[in-house]
Design goal:
The protein has helices spanning 2-9, 25-41, 50-57, 61-64, 66-89, 91-111, 115-130, 132-143, 146-177, 181-185, 187-201, 206-215, 224-243, 253-274, 289-318, 324-349, 354-372, 381-394, 396-406, 415-454, 461-473, 482-515. By secondary structure, the protein is mainly alpha-helical. Helix 6 (91-111) packs antiparallel against helix 11 and helix 17 (354-372) packs antiparallel against helix 22. The protein starts with a helix and ends in a 19-residue tail after the last helix.
């Protein structure tokens, strides 16, 4: 009776699926967050080391980019099926296998003698890392009651939001003081520690074991077609997004092929999984309007986070000439702001209507992007850091409420599947954000350059006046006409680049404003995490 009363008072929650066992739940948060932080960090830590990897392995920089692509593709394929894998293998066992594979493949990456070995090791690293974030998220939701879940998700937010931000800075520092090998080798000691801590402290509760036994009654039924469609759909989608700009998008036969395979496979996946009794991806969860809306908002959050994380350092390097390390530092201030604000977001997640929190957070993102559109090529380091900080303040109020609200009304045995789909939304949104931003940037820079060059003609008095004064300055040189023209061209390219970045920030702002009304599809109420039943 007491248990039933406690369960009713917790919005249908009880501790039968808790991963804490006899230990304090907050201790478990620390144990399972370490490997997830390593994995999220690795989505971006190698970005700034590509030139060093190319030089060390005697390959081109374009070949070295496959070090990034291979990891992202493997990650994208594993994340959606990680919920099914954890249910089939056992949640704790799958978590430990993922840590071990990620750690061993990190060692292989650091010791790789050639690009082929490195790419293979990165694929295995992506496979191992793909299951970490979804399983951790599922554990947190099962371990904490609704009224405390916001703070638990806040801890998860620190890992997932700050990891990609610190990656380029940490990667740049490690590469400068050591070598590119240590970008991967640094994972090994942390991975070993994480494995043993998880093995000792994380519990596999009886209810999870019973659910697994029920799933395996009559033998393990593997949805082979579903797995193949996931691999083809998300694998080729990630390949399309990651290689599209380099291959000139649909002017490339390869991109046309990968996009077509992805589209056909994803549509087929939806139809196929809808009719399966034991689907590898439970698409029927999309019938829950609240869950579907959180997936959309999570994708937008990933788009904003990853898109701007790529754009801001790129702008500082191309326009202001910053080093990769210094440009990464500008993002670090934003990471600090996120860490500071995360506890507030966690505390408010269970007390304020989720629609209000998310609506305000999206408007903060739009405001921050609007602020970025007013930057110039003469901004200081403080200006760039402040712009990122302004944006970072609002990110926890997006990420925490989304994850807290997503499970509202879903059956508890679907926690792992829901967590996988949420992480897919974040990663796919991030990949789209990076790809779309880079495509917009290239097109806008070309347009802006053409507009600026149109004004550089003798009919423009400003142009003729500048050239006359410049010739006087370079009068003693070998060719007083060529040097001013070259200097002017460099300035045109610099200003066109800056204007291109501002155009992309403006486009992202408009996109956020257009998608903000999506929050109205969510269920209202302050206790956004409740309502989960068996």
């Amino acid at each position: 009776m007491a248990s039933a009363a406690a369960k009713a008072g917790a919005g249908g929650w009880d501790n039968s699926r808790s991963a804490a066992g006899p230990y304090n739940p907050w201790l478990i948060v620390a144990m399972i967050s370490l490997p997830t932080f390593m994995e999220v960090l690795d989505t971006s830590i190698a970005n700034v080391s590509l030139d060093h990897i190319a030089g060390g392995l005697s390959i081109s920089t374009d070949q070295a980019t496959w070090v990034l692509t291979s990891y992202l593709v493997a990650n994208a394929v594993v994340i959606p099926i990680s919920g099914w894998l954890s249910d089939a293998i056992g949640r704790k066992r799958y978590f430990l296998i993922s840590i071990a594979l990620f750690t061993l493949s990190s060692l292989a990456c650091g010791l790789a003698p050639n690009i082929g070995t490195l790419i293979l090791a990165r694929v295995l690293q992506g496979v191992g890392g793909g299951g970490l974030a979804p399983v951790e998220q599922a554990m947190l939701v099962d371990t904490f009651p609704p009224e405390k879940r916001g703070m638990a998700i806040a801890a998860f937010a620190i890992v997932v939001v700050v990891g990609p931000v610190l990656g380029p800075t940490l990667g740049g520092y490690i590469t400068e003081v050591a070598s590119w090998h240590w970008v991967f080798l640094i994972n090994v000691p942390f991975g070993i520690v994480a494995f043993f801590l998880a093995d000792i402290f994380v519990d596999e509760p009886e209810q999870v074991k019973k659910d697994r036994a029920k799933m395996l009654e009559g033998g393990l039924r593997i949805d082979v077609v579903g797995v193949i469609l996931v691999v083809l759909g998300l694998g080729f989608l990630e390949l399309t997004l990651d290689r599209g700009e380099r291959e000139d998008w649909f002017a490339s036969g390869m991109i046309v092929t990968t996009a077509a395979i992805s589209a056909i496979s994803l549509v087929s996946l939806g139809f196929w999984e809808w009719r399966q009794k034991n689907p590898v991806v439970d698409v029927k969860l999309l019938r829950n309007r609240n869950f579907s809306a959180t997936l959309i908002i999570m994708a937008v959050t990933g788009l904003i986070l990853y898109g701007t994380t790529q754009l801001i350092p790129q702008m500082l390097q191309q326009v202001l000439g910053y080093s990769s390390f210094d440009s990464g530092l500008a993002l670090t201030f934003g990471g600090i702001a996120t860490v500071i604000m995360v506890p507030f977001a966690g505390a408010m997640a269970g007390k304020v209507d989720v629609r209000i929190l998310l609506g305000v957070a999206l408007l903060i993102q739009a405001g921050a992007l609007w602020h970025m559109t007013h930057m110039s090529a003469d901004i200081t380091f403080f200006d760039a850091a402040f712009a990122r900080t302004l944006q970072a303040v609002g990110l926890p109020f997006l990420f925490v409420p989304i994850n807290a609200a997503a499970y509202n009304g879903l059956p508890r045995e679907s926690t792992a599947q829901a967590s996988s789909m949420l992480n897919v939304a974040r990663n796919v949104g991030g990949s789209i954000g990076i790809s779309m931003s880079q495509s917009w940037l290239v097109g806008s820079m070309q347009t802006r350059q053409s507009q600026l060059v149109e004004n550089l003609n003798p009919l423009n008095p400003n142009y003729t006046d500048w050239m006359a004064r410049a010739k006087n300055v370079f009068a003693g040189t070998a060719d007083p006409n060529a040097i001013p023209t070259g200097v002017l061209y460099q300035q045109v390219m610099r200003q066109a680049a800056m204007m291109g970045f501002l155009d992309v920030f403006r486009a992202l702002m408009i996109l956020v404003l257009v998608l903000t009304p999506t929050v109205l599809l969510l269920r209202g109420g302050r206790n956004t995490s409740g309502g989960m039943g068996h």
